[in-house]
Amino acid sequence: PQPHGLKMSVAGVAHNDVPAAANWACAAASAAASAAACSSGSLQDAEFSAQMRRIEAALQGAPKHIRIRGTAWAQRLGLLASVRQSEFRRDRNLHAELLLQCIEDGRWEEPMDKHPPEGPLPCLPAHVACRLRRQKTERTDLVRHVGLAWTSSAGSEPLVRSLSQSAISQQQQKQQQQQQQQQQQSPGPQTRPARATTPRRPFSRDSCCCYYYCCCQAVLVVILVVELLNSRTVDLATVLQEPQQLLWEFGSLRLVKLTAKDHLSRLLPHLLPIARSLHECLTWRR
């Protein structure tokens, strides 16, 4: 499109010299660039004005110490409302976004933890600036994803937070409805709630060996008790009163590990009646 004030047509450019055509192209490009800059600048100014209104609303319900410093920073940022440079506008909007987050969270971050300077704004830390840009990009992508406009038709106010929250709630409701419909249509084994299962303890090689030796020891203890009772060297009452003596006698054979003796001490009350019944059977046969 031709810039305002230039009436030169394409035919006129063709009949004139090359410098005139170059000047016309440069003028058209500069006009288009200035129009794009004005549109982006107006968008940044509208975003800043909306942020300042949200800051003013947040300060009304904030504590006293937050309200005092927040008001000072809001007044300092308000002096930058007529900034023309695009870089300064972006930095101003990032400071306003950080101020709003600090007021809502009730704690100050650098550089908001100090009083605002009289000169230029202090630079934001790299991690804070990256976080604010990432959050803004995520909100913008979410608004575009759900097909909502960046500005409202009434006052050109950015609807970033309200639209993002409503979009998230709508997506969650849709997902819940889809899951309920799938469960009603196909109540198969996949849709049934999973049972609470306790994790099984792995059965290691050491535990296998321990239980194996313990079983062998239990059998040999029964045999040992029977042999001791048959030899008439140990009375059954003595064995029942002092079962640890069997552990000492059997441990001298060095056939099992020490860990198996702990298991065997628990099995002795059950093994002694078995040994007694075997002894009675052998005595009755004789």
- What are the low-pLDDT stretches, counting only 5+ consecutive residues below 50? 1-16, 28-37, 148-160, 252-259
Number of helices: 10
User: How many separate domains make up the residues?
Assistant: 2
Largest sheet: none
* Succession of helices and strands: HHHHHHHHHH
Q: Care to count the β-strands?
A: 0
Q: Report helical residue fraction.
A: 55-70%
Strand content: under 5%
Task: Determine the structural class based on helices, strands and strand pairing.
Answer: mainly alpha
Q: Tell me the radius of gyration.
A: 43 Å
| Straight-line distance between termini | 124 Å
| Mean pLDDT across residues | 65
Shape: elongated
Region (Disordered): 165-202
Domain DUF4485: 45-126
Protein name: DUF4485 domain-containing protein
Biased composition (Low complexity): 170-201
Structure report:
- The protein is mostly helical and 286 residues long.
- The protein folds into 2 domains: 42-169, no CATH class; 206-285, no CATH class.
- The chain has helices at 10-15, 18-60, 64-78, 86-105, 126-145, 160-185, 205-230, 236-241, 244-251, 258-285.
- The longest helix has 43 residues, at 18-60.
- InterPro entries: CEP112, DUF4485.
- Residues 165-202 are annotated as: Disordered.
